[in-house]
Amino acid sequence: RNQDNGNKVIDAFAKTSRPCPPFCIQPMTSAPGIETLGELELLDYVQQMEAGDASIYLIDSRTPDWVERGTIPGAVNVPWTELVPAKGATTEGITNVMTEQFNVGIAEGVDEFAIDEAIANGDVS
Asked: Confidence band (pLDDT; 50, 70, 90) for 65?
């Protein structure tokens, strides 16, 4: 943070409130097994990644317009909109993100129709 009391914040970051959604207060734990990080934890992980820890996969889920304003060192950008059907994400697109970005395997005997049904029903098991 800039400690200069005379510093000016650019308009894009000067808003004190934004409409919900998409700028809603979110829980610190999004789902079991998913570690959601605060600022200090993020900085700790970035340092571990810089020291060579390849077990850490840091995902920046911001949309491209936000990423253009600044990146998180070492993070892979996977916009949240690519995983939300209400924002235009398709079953094929979601499957590609999950298999290519997250190395998720598709269970034996599961076809695209079953995946589509699971996405429509919100079943992520």
From this structure: very high
The structure tokens 């409130």 sit at: 17
DSSP per-residue letters across 57-84: --EE---HHHHTT---TTPEE--GGGG-
Omega cis (within 30) before 22 = yes
User: So what's the pLDDT on residue 79?
Assistant: 94
pTM: 0.61
Distance separating alpha carbons of residues 62 and 77, to the nearest angstrom: 7
Q: CA torsion angle for 62, 64, 68, 71 (degrees, to 10)?
A: 40
pLDDT of residue 36: 74
Distance CA 48, CA 69 (A): 24
- Taking the C-alpha atoms of 95, 101, 84 and 109 in order, what is their torsion angle to the nearest 10 degrees? 20
